[in-house]
Fold this protein.
Amino acid sequence: MRHFLTITDVNRKELHALLREAAAFKRGRTAQPLSGKIVALVFQKPSMRTRVAFEVAVMQLGGLATYLGQDDIQLGAREPVKDVARVLSRYVDAIVLRTFGHSIVEEFAAFSSVPVMNGLSDLVHPCQALADVLTIQEQFGRLKGIQVAYVGDGNNVLHSLAEACAMTGVHLTVSTPERYRPDARLWEATRKLGESEDAKLDWVAKPQEAVRGAQVIYTDVWVSMGQEKERTQRLQIFKPFQVNEALLKLADRNCRVMHCLPAHRGEEISDGVMEGPGSVVFDQAENRLHVQKALLAFLMKRSNRAPAKRTRTA
């Protein structure tokens, strides 16, 4: 059984194969590997992009998607995570889980007899990272050696972006406020992961230093879902980390700007940069569809489901 909980659940060869498959789907390749299959979307956290991209991906691959929100399941409250995983596994052929705690994703996968895909957890956002590296590859024709600067919060999006960069030879320089640096254990493991691909991963305090000469600048919201009580404090702390016209001038003259959306214009990114000629934000958003099609096809091909055991009753 193959699950996709983090970028490192695939190896380098498989990651590049996923990108090639996603590019083929974007060029118009048609296939129906999910014909007769049903995929459950279990979302504790709502998302327009993740939901629609997966629903459309499943349908275009010949399958059916069924959406279950927090009120439908109350995962871990109404009944244990492991019970939900074992029940849904008998109804559907794959599961996309979007939740708060990463431990929930891991427990769900441990008890699932069908592939589980992490649509987002508090630690990582691997489907987004697939779209990110596909977008960079489209823009520059390669990944190895590209200079990416990430400015903002050291969050789940950054964690998966760093893993994807490490596995593809992309150089990543990160600038966050000191108290919002990426997870220390994951960051060090990712830096070591990048050594075999000559990918350099660095953290610097000043965003101006991070973006100097960068070919890509990436940012994300400063206040994520579930952090609303910290909003006032976060806005004050992150104010010097806005991606704006002044910061963009320090980067490569043909620098591309990326954002995983939703964007809070005027906070982490200025409207002018968001709408500027270097913005590839909406190409990046579209690529969620194509990489998720590639991921679904990949996992369904490599996961042989055994028939569920059923006990006859009188």
Remarks:
- The chain is about 45% helix and 15% strand.
- The CA atoms of residues 10 and 295 lie 10 Å apart.
- The longest strand covers residues 38-43.
